[in-house]
Structure formats: C-alpha cells, structure tokens
Task: structure prediction
Amino acid sequence: MAKTKVVHVAGKRKTAVARATIKKGRGKVKINKKPIELFNPELARLRLQEPLVIAGNITEEVDIDVNITGGGWSSQVEAARLAIAKGLVEYTESKELEKKYLDYDRHLLVADTRRKERKKPMTHSRARGKRQKSYR
Result:
C-alpha cells in the first residue's frame, strides 16, 4: 500500500493561527471548510489567492484545507497565506518556487513576529510608561 504525501503547516500573525493541510487532489482550496470563492471580504480573498497564483499549475494537483482561529480578519488572512505558501514549498520541495515567493513578498515564507506591546503598570491603558510633560 503506497502512502500519499500529506503536509501539515502552521502560519501565525499576531494572535491569529492558520493550520494548512496539503495533499494530492483536484485543486480544491477550502478555508474553514468553505471554498475559497466564498471567502469575504473580497480584498482578503485576493490576498489569499496570491500564493496560489504564483505557484501556477502546482495548485491544480493538490487539495488545500486551511483552519484559521483567533485575531481579526486581516491577521487571519496573513496567517493563512503564510501557511499556504510554506505548505506548497514543503510539498513540492522546490527551491524555484521558494525563490519566487521570496522575490514577490518575503512575508509569504517568513512570519512577522511583531506583537502588541504589553500595558505598563501605573498607566491608564497605555503601553508607554509615563506621559511626557509638555511644559519644559
């Protein structure tokens, strides 16, 4: 019995986490169990399709299933496109595809590690420690 190749990859952005599963199939892409064509808003859908368009014919041979949790819609989209791109590179093991992604947008393969700065003590919901005086 021959095993089919399956790749599991995660992408993160702020508090959003996207987990992608890529396996041999017929080119179906699902985001949270819904086809990518139904994903709204339209800007988010277009951002999600970028790694698929760059990959070209490779996407017609695989099924991609993405689960996204946490964060806002923008962070979720960034996490999902990171997971999709990383997964396709790992599935194909192609240096050429990796170079295409890096040339187009580095954040397709490299996570953005910036996070929200924590609130400091003795302030009212501010990240900065003290308020600057305007009279000096």
Notes: Residues 6-108 form a domain with the Ribosomal Protein S5; domain 2 fold (CATH 3.30.230.10).
